[in-house]
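Record 1 of the preview.
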Amino acid sequence: MSSSGLKESPLALPPKAAPAANEKDVLTNFFLAATAASLASVITNPLEVVKTRMQLQNELVDSSGRAVTRVYKNPFQSLALIARTEGIRGLQSGLNMTIMYQFMIAGTRFGLYEPAKRALGVEKGQPGYLIKNYLAGMASGAVSSFTGNPFYLVRARLQASNSGAVTRGRHVYTSAFQGFKAVYQSDGLSGFFRGIGGAIPRVSFGSATQLSSYEFFKDMLLARPYLGYQFQDKTVYLHLGASVLAGFFCVTAMNPFDVISVRLYNQPLDPQTGKGLLYTGPIDCARKTLMTEGIRGAFKGWTVQYIRLGPHTVFTFLFWEQLKLAYDRVMHPHE
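->
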């Protein structure tokens, strides 16, 4: 009997629990993550320029040949060379596109990650927890590849524009606006999704590895002390440690796909058919790269990719976590 003297109905549903303060809707997660990734991009864009040029250098040239000219020998030499010959504009080539690309792709990935986890019934500690997290990251990454592809395509071509004769099939753009205009005039709306076949696996695997491994390493670091130090939840040290580890695995998973994507975006096109002259698609690009350049061709730019994506992952997660905490303090000041 209840205190009112009435028997509670056996069919009565329990009251719906109020959402926790840290549970945010898709749009909130989108804008917090998009802002974090955009801020990180300003810091890491010069390394994105170097990565793009190193991946396009001596494209489809037999790596065993002794006469191969390597203008960009390593990340640090490449940074110095671009700074000396092109200045800050060369180092920050395509920055506006980088920010727009990261705003769209990171916002979509992070914004859809939690809904995808809920749809898959992810419960921490339950069987299949890590696999479901990975699948959720792949799903959000696949969607984000479509929202980010137009910006990635124009950015890749902008950053390759001043890279000289060591790259092939360059599309020379003087500005982002001119790049969008040129793509639309030559290929229409479909031109903005050129290379999407290479972008989907690249972003899907990269997103899945980055998001799921970051969550995994956070839990791992909180589980027990390491070298006598116990990490605490919601601290910069925890976010720093987890993001450094996540960045390593993310780069390794996505680098081969990144090489393929960059080459598909930058290959010369048949003026009559609009089709690529070097590759028919991502599988053909992967096959030709492996046949002529070996496995090293698939991992071209790995070092600079990690030097870029490692800090980018760290800064993105650090900014994201701090923005979430700030949002909670403003929106839920008494919790």
